TrEMBL record, chain A:
InterPro entries reported for this sequence: ACP (IPR003231), ACP-like_sf (IPR036736), PP-bd_ACP (IPR009081), Ppantetheine_attach_site (IPR006162)
UniProt KW keywords: Fatty acid biosynthesis, Fatty acid metabolism, Lipid biosynthesis, Lipid metabolism, Phosphopantetheine, Phosphoprotein
Organism name: Paracoccus acridae
Domain Carrier: 3-83
Lineage: Bacteria, Pseudomonadati, Pseudomonadota, Alphaproteobacteria, Rhodobacterales
One Pfam match: PP-binding
Name this protein carries in UniProt: Acyl carrier protein AcpXL
Source organism superkingdom: Bacteria
Pathway as given in its UniProt record: Glycolipid biosynthesis; KDO(2)-lipid A biosynthesis
Primary gene name: acpP1
Automatic annotation (TrEMBL), chain B:
Family membership: Belongs to the thiolase-like superfamily. Beta-ketoacyl-ACP synthases family.
Lineage: superkingdom: Bacteria
Full protein name: Nodulation protein E
Primary location group: membrane
InterPro entries in alphabetical order: Beta-ketoacyl_synthase (IPR000794), Ketoacyl_synth_AS (IPR018201), Ketoacyl_synth_C (IPR014031), Ketoacyl_synth_N (IPR014030), PKS_Beta-ketoAc_synthase_dom (IPR020841), Thiolase-like (IPR016039)
Role description: Proposed to synthesize NOD factor fatty acyl chain. Involved in the synthesis of a highly unsaturated fatty acid moiety, which forms part of a lipo-oligosaccharide that is responsible for host specificity.
Keyword vocabulary terms for this entry: Cell inner membrane, Cell membrane, Membrane, Nodulation, Transferase, Transmembrane, Transmembrane helix
PROSITE patterns hit by this protein: KS3_1, KS3_2
Length: 88, 424
């Protein structure tokens, strides 16, 4: 289940970054992948659509959002939590 | 103009008819507004002086489905107080706001456009969304309610030039009339063009400014998508700012040839002395300090002002992380040492971001600074941000005599427009 979620996120990010999914590691930051602020907002939207969840993210204060975008690993963990909350 | 002898030109400049560039001088002889702070100029200026906040819980259909629920909405707006049934059927809210503001401005100016002067007068207004409420309501009718028929006036009601056209009809302005849409800089671009037209002699009087009425379900829903809106407050330049808050309303001014205004003994509110625009040519949403700086510097140059002549800047100051620090960097660069001596405030924390109408409502703060010697504050200011290290006139209005001011507008799309005014 968890791997599946991570793979789906990887595919979304890969499409946004125009890379292959295996190039997206959990340590990659949005910056590493060449994803700018608009690309990030677009990726978050695509993730919301994919999992039918609502992600609390304000582009003005990314560091204060409950949704940690430091790297792909933190994004994946946060999405897993939101998916679990939705199922609960 | 070019055929004039230098002597005649110098004499005209000396008489005060023409500015230093040998072109006509342009003055503001009327002002009108409606926004969340008030239905007219005196009430709005009183709110500026008091540092009143017009932002509150939004109230319209389906607001419960929005994640952003605050805005500077005109809650007590009753179109039937100002317009008859037939007019309401034909006027979207953005047109209603523009007409109301224009009537106030023309009444203050004392102008009557009957006869030849109407042929040499026009109107140029800014709006970003035009009749967005009309789009929203009628999409709902056909998509959500499944109806196959809409009211016959949908198109004339929603078109972006509807407000400018109705203003031209209301007063018989038969010269240049059009609408400018440059997102958040629409009003400044509109007023700048109006200024240039009067200055060049292309028109004698121009009604100008802008209006916006985007506070409806579809309008706010679209903005939510960008994730730049605040859920709680607009705090320009404050370190803990977390986004913009939308407003609605209009501002309309009478820009008039100085000689014409003097001849008829008009009360002059301020002189428009310069205007410049620039394009970042860089990013569709992220602002550029260089683009903003170029517009500021060019506006000073156009006005024949030195940086140290400027006492106050009405900032674009949206309260987003990106705008405020970029704008402060641009001002610091353009003004050098003088940046630490001038005052710069954003009134958006009071009237919200009125998008295509915002520059027009903000010009009122510039007029208040020049005429009344009162600088409108940046309210909601809580924490100093080293990246916004200018005197932002935090939270309380300040008395100060200023001789020249600027008004900044920097739009999505990287389009910048800066206007310069001077005390008369």
């Amino acid at each position: 289940m968890t791997d599946q979620i991570r793979d789906r996120i990887r595919a979304i990010i890969a499409e946004q970054a125009m890379l292959e999914p295996d190039q997206i590691t959990e340590n990659s930051t949005p910056q590493d992948l060449g994803i700018d602020s608009l690309g990030l907002v677009e990726s978050i939207f695509a993730i919301e659509e994919e999992f039918d969840i609502s992600i609390p993210f304000n582009a003005n204060e990314p560091e204060r959002s409950e949704f940690d975008i430091s790297n792909m690993g933190t994004i994946m963990a946060a999405v897993e939590r939101l998916v679990a909350q939705k199922a609960a | 103009m070019n055929s004039r002898k230098p002597g005649a030109k110098a004499a005209a400049a000396q008489a005060g008819v023409e500015g230093p560039n040998g072109v006509r001088r342009v003055v503001i002889t009327g002002a009108g507004t409606i926004n969340a702070l008030g239905h007219d100029v005196p009430t709005t200026m009183e709110a500026f002086r008091e540092g009143r906040c017009g932002i509150s819980q939004l109230d319209f259909r389906d607001v419960d489905r929005l994640s952003i629920q605050i805005g500077a909405q005109i809650h007590d707006w009753r179109a039937e107080d100002y317009f008859n049934r037939q007019q309401i059927l034909l006027y979207d809210k953005f047109t209603q706001f523009a007409l109301l503001a224009a009537k106030q401005a023309v009444a203050q100016s004392g102008l009557d456009f009957q006869g030849a002067i109407g042929l040499r007068s026009g109107v140029v207004l800014g709006t970003a969304g035009g009749g967005l409420n009309t789009w929203d309501e009628n999409y709902r009718t056909v998509y959500e309610e499944g109806k196959n028929r809409v009211h016959p006036f949908v198109v004339p009601k929603l078109m972006n030039n509807a407000a400018a056209s109705h203003v031209s009809m209301e007063f018989g302005l038969r010269g240049p009339a059009f609408t400018v849409a440059t997102a958040c800089a629409s009003s400044n671009h509109a007023m700048g063009l109006a200024f240039q037209m009067v200055r060049s002699g292309g028109a004698q009087v121009m009604l100008t400014g802008g209006s916006e009425a985007m506070l409806c379900f579809g309008g706010v829903k679209a903005w939510e998508g960008l994730r730049v809106m605040s859920k709680d407050a607009c705090r320009p330049f404050s370190a803990n700012r977390n986004g913009m808050v939308q407003g609605e309303g209009a501002g309309v001014f009478v820009f008039e040839d100085y000689e014409h205004a003097c001849t008829r003994g008009a009360d002059i509110l301020a002189e428009v002395v310069g205007f410049a625009m620039s394009s970042d040519a860089q990013d569709i949403v992220m602002p550029s300090a260089q683009g903003a700086e170029r517009a500021i510097t060019a506006a000073l140059h156009d006005a024949g002002l030195n940086p140290e002549d400027v006492g106050y800047i009405n900032a674009h100051g949206t309260g987003t992380a990106a705008n405020d620090k970029t704008e402060c960097a641009a001002v610091a660069h353009a003004f050098g040492h003088h940046a630490d001596r001038l005052m710069i405030s954003s009134t958006k924390a009071m009237h919200g971001h009125i998008i295509g109408g915002t520059g027009a409502v903000e010009l009122l703060a510039c007029i208040m600074a020049l005429r009344d010697g009162v600088i409108a504050p940046t309210i909601g200011y809580q924490e100093a941000d080293p990246e916004c290290g200018l005197d932002v006139v935090p939270n309380e209005a300040r008395e100060a005599r200023v001789d020249a001011v600027l008004s900044n507008a920097f739009a999505f799309g990287g389009l910048n427009a800066v206007i310069a005014l001077r005390r008369v």
